[in-house]
Design brief:
Elements: H1 18-22, H2 59-73, E1 77-83, E2 93-98, H3 101-118, E3 124-126, E4 133-137, E5 141-146, H4 148-154, H5 156-166
Length: 167
Amino acid sequence: MVKKAVSKKKAAPKKVGKKADKTKKVAAPKASKKLIRPVIAKKKNKPVARAKLPKAAGVPEKIYAAVLKILDDKQADDLVKVDLRQRSALYDYMVIASGNPRQLQAIAAEMHKMLPSVGSKQVKIEGVAEGNWVLVDAGDVIVHLFRPEVREFYNLDQIYAETKSRK
């Protein structure tokens, strides 16, 4: 045998006085079971012309030109430029340069200051404190700045020269 729970509702207390006479409780309108929908005339399916967003044409090239100018102004040594447009989905260009630790820090600081004005959304810099290998990620352009001894050890120039000759 199943017992049903019966809930007892308490009556609302009645107000006494002048305000009790003036205030009336209004019941909320009951929602109808039928939903009324407006009739909309159907249109023929036509292709919708979507607004084309302006393409940021030339931004990687502007960043690349700015990087080369900064490296030239700060007198970086042994500049190597690698075009990665056909080989990488992450970067369009890679630049490898050498210099002493103070020079590398100055180059990184200049890039951090100048590249956002050219169109790089976010410039990330790693390794400035040590000054052995500074990595500047400017979005479409990546820059490796080395001390000469560290550059010989890692030998990125040779790695990218080999990938060029394979293709």
